[in-house]
Amino acid sequence: MTVNEYFRQACAELGTALGSEAEGEAAARIVLEDVAGYDRKYLFMYPDRELLDETRQRIQAVVDRIKAGEPVQYAVGRARFMGMDFKVTPDVLIPRPETEGLCDMIVREADGRSDLRVLDIGTGSGCIAVSLARELPFAQVDAMDVSPAALAVARENAQQLGAKVNFIQDDILTAKAPEAYYDIIVSNPPYVCQSEKADMDERVSDREPALALFVPDDDPLKFYRAICRYASRGLKPGGRLYFEINSRFPVEMRRLMEDEGFTDVDVTRDYKGNYRFASGKR
User: What's the burial of 165, exposed, middle or buried (CB within 10 Å: 0-12/13-18/19+)?
Assistant: First the structure.
């Protein structure tokens, strides 16, 4: 079997599993590149090269995991974010393109300031903390998570990507903030209501960590409330708080942040047109 013949076979199998030809082809490209190093250029230049049985078996094992319901990123063990490859496991959420907009917003509004103190709450894979540590000049970046397993993944990502990040294991629902310490606090906390689970892709709802996804229907802003109170103490005067939010609650988020004493509160949309980010000044 040639490389191109197998690529077409993988596209078909993954297209059926993922529900569309386009998603199948995208997934097949990721798998062939990550497992065997066969990127788009290789597939174009050597379509008729024979595929070794050993290589085909290694690739097919990953294809079969995806067909069985595992997210593509978990199957290959990595996800792309802000131009970097982050290790991901079922202990952490898969970084989403929408969240890149949150990092871009922070870097843009920092406007080249150096030596900022930054805290990422609920860091997961570390994608936000690592990205900010690399993008903000001489920043001191801390990253908090309640999960030891998630922190282990985040530490490995920071090391592999050359980012200096200090990791903290703590529960934001009970954590006590240092007084007037940070210039920036950012969080992409759990925000999906339990009632939304039925409408979600099972690869997300059943495979990604529920601890990092879901909140009770009767208290959907529980983490935002706790983080606002932490930030009220932990931010320096004039410091800024940034959130990724549930697009169902832009009005409630604005009200919560204003009620907790934040000013210049702004709720903005992502590149898809959905309300996705909230920010405010202490």
Answer: buried
Calpha distance 93→76 (Å, rounded) = 14
241, 185 in Cβ contact below 8 A?
yes
Burial status of residue 31 (CB atoms within 10 A of its CB: 0-12, 13-18, 19 or more): buried
Residue type for 61, please? A
Q: For residue 169, give the H/E element and its range.
A: strand 165-169
Residue 275: left if φ>0, alpha if ψ -120 to 50, beta else—which one?
Answer: beta
Size of the chain in residues:
282
pLDDT per residue as tens digits for the range 81-114: 999 999 999 999 999 999 999 999 999 999 989 9
What tens digit of pLDDT does each residue of 271-280 get? 999 999 999 9
Whether the Cβ atoms of residue 165 and residue 144 lie closer than 8 Å to each other? no
Task: Provide the 3-class DSSP secondary structure of residue 248.
Answer: coil
Residue 54 neighbours by CB distance under 10 Å: 8
pLDDT at site 257: 98
